[in-house]
């Protein structure tokens, strides 16, 4: 994928999400006003209305806001943990490296969605729980990449000279390693971000989402009930979900 | 595969009936595999959908819930209401040729129904002292107290009669006749393929002359409602016992649709919001009154039920004409402004974000659209609902065992007599660990007295007056808010007639037009 395509994809996602953030009505579905049920797309309702007469465009924007919030929180948590642990493993003693990387292997073997479903059914669906679970499970992807980069950087001359003049390891990591591993780590973060978008929608689709927030998954599930009666109820949320995760994947792909 | 089988059956049916112009085969969709076909030891829906056509009760109920003869041709109630004597139809034979007698009835009630049929065990057995068979054509019920609902609990769904000669001395749960049933009913068992189909054929020796008219009754297991609708539209299936309100529009002009207030296992159902009166916020009457004014029930009927049913006008279902009190809920017109005023008065002011309170609403996942609409309507008066969809077992535990809820959405089926399905909602002795009893935990000595009075009398006029007095009290106290009366819709293809979806014996009189 060309650099150009990645930039465009990233820009589109960014603009769409910004629109959701700025334009989505506050609250969740129940705060949207009701008009006629099952109205097809029209000038007044560009994406139609749902079974209770709520504007699908407004609902979609609310869903986008939820999706962005959960994915961003997940990505921040995963990238923070992943970079810290990756650099510690790469710079630290062999036993620390082993300990951290075997832990990463174990965490990586956990099925993220299943754990998220378990947590949601035990503690109730909440966007915070979901972001925590996904973040705490997806960090090894980033940690592994960061560790590999750190290991190669560690042997480079500028790092060795910095260590030789007595700079403390943490300072070396922040000043010399971090700037070099960041681009690679951010690219991996895109994958975590896209995964979180899908996971949030999947949980809401099966009814384990955050009941206080509108979700694309929830909209798709509701639309599925009226599959042949109101195509706009499932088509637009499904398009939003697929489109967004595809664009994120493109934007995060490596050249 | 299923389709090929059906086709083969239809062709076979056609080949057998060369004497008649048409095959007279009806294919019926059932939502799940029946498992076995003994309707006396289970209340499962798919089982009764099939097996009720193989058996008979002592009586049957017509569309309006009136008692009609089935195995019993007539009955008399003693003046004190404690003895009911049934005269049985003469010359009835089991499908295996053995004669039917009063001993079969006595055996079935005492040894099977009172032990294993959930509703009959809970709702009838406690009132019965003894069932006697003085001679082959007479059955006598001796009651501990007058039990006016008795006759309406004796139809094939509530009390199917089993053959004693096959079940005596065995464990009814393990008897092999459960999978090769022998009944007295309009149709005989012919074949059963697990998860696929059950085939019944006409009982040539049926004791009701001229019935049944259909040669064959084929039940196909089709789990998905979308698939069922498509199958009916394509002509692969002739009859659907239940059509969801949201699907009714899809079948208009494609099938004969019939709305009834009752179906096997549930009659005269009212979608009801139960307030947990043990929660301080809901113990305040103005708060409950505010709910009544804030919920737009007309909108609920239109948007969720797609118009199938009626806005509830009284605590007792309008189809029970002698007991309902029309206009009992007139005082609570839809009026959000009034609801807001009542909530202010009750000391639930709006916070800075506009919310007054957050309450948990528990419901079956199938009622999610009701809950969603209620959340929408209550948001307008500042009440936030947290929706908690729960499967039936978890719902029963949370609401009736742990009592851990604020609001619960329950479809209370009143039954064909208020004694069957209304008493449990209000009587103080029905509070506790019995599923779908008094969810509100409502206690009112006058209401208890009125139920006891109505339940031990056989004078319909006096009973009706007691129930109406009870309705006046509960309409004032509002332990529940009665939302909409929901109808059952059945559908069949236009070339069939006379199906009876309100009865377990739905195909007894049905025929295919020539």
- Whole-number average pLDDT of chain A? 88
As a percent range, the share of strand residues of chain B is 15-25%
Radius of gyration of chain B: 24 Å
The termini of chain B sit apart by 29 Å
Count of separate DSSP helical elements of chain B: 17
Provide the low-confidence segments of chain A as ranges: none
Give the helix tally of chain A: 9
* DSSP summary, beta strand count of chain A: 0
Order of helices and strands of chain A: HHHHHHHHH
Shape of chain B: globular
Give the structural class of chain B.
alpha+beta
> Overall mean pLDDT score of chain B?
87
Instruction: Please report the total strand number of chain B as a whole number.
Output: 23
- Give the helix/strand class of chain A: mainly alpha
Major β-sheet profile of chain A: none
Main beta-sheet strand count, sense and barrel state of chain B: 7 strands, mixed
Lay out the secondary structure.
The complex is a heterodimer of chains A (255) and B (514).
Chain A: H1 3-23, H2 56-91, H3 94-108, H4 112-123, H5 127-154, H6 157-164, H7 169-205, H8 216-225, H9 231-252
Helix pairs in contact in A: 1-2, 1-9, 2-3, 2-5, 2-7, 3-5, 4-5, 5-7, 6-7, 7-8, 7-9, 8-9
Chain B: H1 2-16, E1 25-30, H2 45-51, E2 59-61, E3 67-69, E4 72-77, E5 83-88, H3 102-116, H4 118-123, E6 128-135, E7 138-143, H5 164-167, E8 187-193, E9 197-202, E10 216-221, H6 225-234, E11 239-243, H7 245-251, E12 256-260, E13 262-263, E14 266-267, E15 269-275, H8 280-283, H9 285-294, H10 297-303, E16 309-311, H11 336-345, E17 357-363, H12 368-379, E18 383-389, H13 392-401, E19 407-413, H14 418-421, H15 423-426, H16 445-455, H17 460-477, E20 480-486, E21 488-492, E22 496-497, E23 511-512
Parallel strand pairs in B: 1-10, 1-11, 17-18, 17-19
Antiparallel strand pairs in B: 2-3, 4-5, 5-7, 6-7, 8-9, 9-10, 11-21, 12-21, 13-14, 15-19, 15-20, 16-20, 22-23
Helix pairs in contact in B: 9-11, 16-17
């Amino acid at each position: 994928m060309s650099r150009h395509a990645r930039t465009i994809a990233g820009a589109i996602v960014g603009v769409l999400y910004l629109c959701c953030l700025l334009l989505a009505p506050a609250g969740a579905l129940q705060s949207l006003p009701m008009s006629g049920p099952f109205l097809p797309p029209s000038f007044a309702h560009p994406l139609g209305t749902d079974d209770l007469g709520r504007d699908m465009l407004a609902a979609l924007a609310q869903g986008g806001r939820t999706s962005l919030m959960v994915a961003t929180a997940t990505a921040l948590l995963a990238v923070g943990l992943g970079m810290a642990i990756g650099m510690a493993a790469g710079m630290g003693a062999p036993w620390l490296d082993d300990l951290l990387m075997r832990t990463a292997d174990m965490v990586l073997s956990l099925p993220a969605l299943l754990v998220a479903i378990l947590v949601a059914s035990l503690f109730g669906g909440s966007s915070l729980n979901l972001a925590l679970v996904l973040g705490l499970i997806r960090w090894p992807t980033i940690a592994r990449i960061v560790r590999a980069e750190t290991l190669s950087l560690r042997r480079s001359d500028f790092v060795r000279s910095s260590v030789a003049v007595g700079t403390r390891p943490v300072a070396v990591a922040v000043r010399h390693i971090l700037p070099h591993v960041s681009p690679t780590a951010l690219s991996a973060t895109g994958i975590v971000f896209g995964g979180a978008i899908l996971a949030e929608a999947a949980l809401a689709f099966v009814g384990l989402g955050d009941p206080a927030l509108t979700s694309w998954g929830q909209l798709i599930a509701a639309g599925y009930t009226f599959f042949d009666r109101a195509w706009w109820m499932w088509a637009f949320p499904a398009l939003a979900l697929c489109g967004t995760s595809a664009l994120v994947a493109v934007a995060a792909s490596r050249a | 595969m299923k389709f090929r089988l059906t086709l083969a059956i239809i062709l076979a049916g056609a080949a057998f009936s060369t004497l008649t112009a048409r095959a007279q085969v009806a294919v019926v969709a059932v939502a799940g595999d029946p498992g076995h076909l003994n309707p006396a030891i289970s209340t499962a829906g798919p089982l009764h959908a099939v097996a009720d056509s193989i058996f008979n009760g002592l009586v049957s109920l017509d569309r309006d819930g009136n008692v009609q003869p089935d195995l019993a041709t007539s009955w008399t109630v003693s003046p004190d209401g404690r003895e009911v004597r049934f005269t049985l139809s003469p010359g009835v034979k089991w499908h295996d040729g053995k004669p039917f007698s009063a001993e079969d009835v006595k055996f079935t009630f005492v040894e099977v129904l009172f032990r294993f049929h959930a509703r009959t065990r809970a709702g009838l057995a406690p009132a019965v002292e003894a069932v006697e068979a003085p001679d082959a054509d007479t059955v006598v019920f001796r009651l501990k107290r007058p039990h006016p609902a008795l006759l309406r609990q004796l139809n094939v769904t509530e009390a199917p009669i089993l053959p004693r000669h096959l079940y005596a001395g065995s464990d009814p749960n393990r008897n092999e006749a459960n999978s090769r049933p022998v009944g007295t009913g309009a149709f005989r068992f012919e074949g059963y393929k697990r998860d696929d189909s059950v085939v019944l054929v006409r009982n040539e020796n049926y004791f009701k002359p001229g019935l049944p008219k259909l040669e064959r009754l084929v039940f196909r297991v089709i789990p998905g409602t979308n698939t069922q609708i498509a199958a009916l539209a394509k002509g692969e299936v002739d009859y659907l016992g239940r059509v969801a309100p949201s699907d009714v529009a899809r079948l208009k002009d494609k099938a004969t649709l019939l709305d009834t207030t009752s179906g096997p296992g549930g009659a005269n159902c009212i979608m009801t919001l139960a307030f947990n009166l043990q929660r301080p916020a809901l113990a305040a009457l103005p708060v409950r009154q505010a709910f009544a004014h804030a919920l737009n029930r007309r909108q609920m009927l239109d948007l969720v039920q797609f118009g199938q049913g009626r806005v509830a006008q009284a605590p007792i279902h309008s189809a029970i004409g002698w007991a309902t009190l029309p206009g009992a809920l007139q005082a609570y017109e839809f009026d959000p402004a009034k609801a807001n005023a009542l909530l202010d008065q009750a000391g639930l002011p709006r916070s800075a974000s506009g919310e007054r309170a957050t309450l948990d609403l528990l419901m079956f996942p199938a009622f999610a659209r009701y809950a969603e609409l209620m959340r929408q309507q209550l948001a307008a008066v500042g009440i936030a609902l947290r929706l908690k969809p729960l499967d039936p077992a978890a719902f029963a535990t949370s609401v009736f065992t742990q009592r851990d809820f604020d609001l619960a959405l329950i479809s209370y089926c009143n039954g064909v007599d208020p004694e069957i399905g209304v008493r449990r909602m209000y009587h103080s002795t029905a509070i506790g660990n019995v599923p779908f009893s008094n969810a509100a935990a409502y206690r009112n000595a006058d209401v208890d007295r009125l139920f006891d009075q109505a339940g031990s009398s056989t004078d319909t006029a006096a009973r009706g007056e007691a129930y109406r007095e009870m309705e006046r009290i509960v309409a004032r106290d509002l332990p529940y808010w009665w939302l909409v009366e929901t109808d059952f819709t059945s559908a069949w293809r236009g070339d069939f007639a006379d199906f009876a979806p309100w009865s377990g014996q739905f195909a007894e009189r049905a025929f295919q037009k020539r």
